[in-house]
Design a protein that fits this description.
Strands 2, 4, 5, 6, 9, 10 and 11 form a 7-stranded mixed beta sheet that branches. A 4-stranded antiparallel beta sheet has the order 1-3-8-7, with no helix packed on it. 35% of the residues are buried. The protein has 127 residues and is mainly beta. Helix content is 0%, strand content 50%. It contains no helices and 11 strands.
Amino acid sequence: QMQLVESGGGLVQAGGSLRLSCAASGRIFDNYAMGWFRQAPGKEREFVAGISRSGDWTSYADSVKGRFLISRDNAKNTAYLQMNSLEPEDTAVYYCAAHFSWTTSYFPLKSEQYNSWGQGTQVTVSS
């Protein structure tokens, strides 16, 4: 399994920005599609964004489309989630996840398809 460590969470006012990082180790990073998920108290974990191995293909949840940007730097074994125009509804623990993929353009949307997870980083947006 790949080891993943998230960082960059914190407390921010509504309208502010944060950039989450996900540092990977233990496997060849560019063999893995990456995803970001989040879980708010009392709610199920939900898909936020995904990116293919090559970085050419991305997808976003409707709730974050136009505000969040997922990216990756395969040379640094790191994935990122740039979060802009944050809203109180974005408050959650954010997790990055990795999915081994034979296809460079594919990434899954469901959490159960990812087999490596980070410990999560808390994002709190105050109104």
